[in-house]
Amino acid sequence: MNHAAPAAPAPRAALLPRLSFLRLSLLAAIVLCCASWVYILNVDSNQSHSFFSAETWRRGVSFLKDLAGAGSTATPAFAQASAWRETGRLAYQTLAMAVLGIGIAALVALATFIFGARTLMTGELAPYGASAWRALYIAARAFFTLTRSVPELVWAMIAVFIFSPGILPGAIALGIHNAGILGKLSSEVVEGLDPRPMRALRSSGAGRFQVLLYGVLPEALPRFTTYLLYRWEVIIRTTIVVGFVAAGGLGQEFRLAMSHFHYTTLSLILIWYLILVAAVDIAAVLLRRLAR
């Protein structure tokens, strides 16, 4: 009776799972997360009140009660019509700051993102004798890196020294920072475009401006609009940060309320921020539908 030969044992390397990039990334994320918690708990144990102590939770509950105005004989700010009117005026300034900031960012990014596209400045679609265009490409990329690497708060502190306190320094700070982000994202969109339509335009005798007008902008502008609206949603959340350095709006009032321990005023400002964020999100959705 014939018996089949036993199968050869699988190589040891085949029994081990393949260490792909995703698995390696997951493993690194788990190790870093565990190491972070070990560090946090080690530092937390040296504090006067650790995170998991009853004292910490008692303080947290007490702060929430202060925000709600519990235990105070004064009328909470969110129950006063005059406080709503005053903070409503500041909310309008905050919205104006966000609109002006995203407008500045859009204008700067529209004027510069083409120069940050490698395919148009230094690649196969670059014009003959592209040394000057290569310099423009390096300058545009350096501008994007500088403007987006410096936080909005730092730009706002610089702008306040130049301009008088108000919404203008905040809008300029938001515009400069987001111009770098929009410019980089839009340049990468151009680099990812299919070059065949642009090659066809060049081979048919179209000039550089015509290639940009008919081959690049129609494909890049829809993505640019999407990024623009997304950054507007982010900006409305960042206005509270730039307001901390006397840049106006609800952010400045938030800092003053915290300094004077006006907790119910903090609650009212947070309510206004929720209203602004929801309104901007809804407006961005409607604008995206109109842009399609």
Describe this structure in words.
It is a single chain. This protein has 292 residues and is mostly helical. The protein has a single domain, classed as MetI-like (MetI-like fold). It is 74% helix and 0% strand. Helix 3 packs across helix 12, helix 4 (81-112) runs antiparallel to helix 10 (208-242) and helix 8 packs across helix 10 (208-242). The radius of gyration is 27 Å and the shape is globular. The termini are far apart. The mean pLDDT is 83.
Write a compact overview of the structure shown.
With 292 residues, this protein is mostly helical.
Distance between the termini: 74 Å
**CATH level-4 homologous superfamily:** MetI-like
Structural class call reads mainly alpha
- The fraction of residues in strands falls at under 5%
Largest sheet: none
Characteristic terms for this protein:
mainly alpha, globular, 12 helices, 292 residues
List the helices and strands and how they pair.
Elements: H1 12-15, H2 21-44, H3 54-68, H4 81-112, H5 118-121, H6 131-149, H7 152-162, H8 167-191, H9 196-203, H10 208-242, H11 249-259, H12 263-291
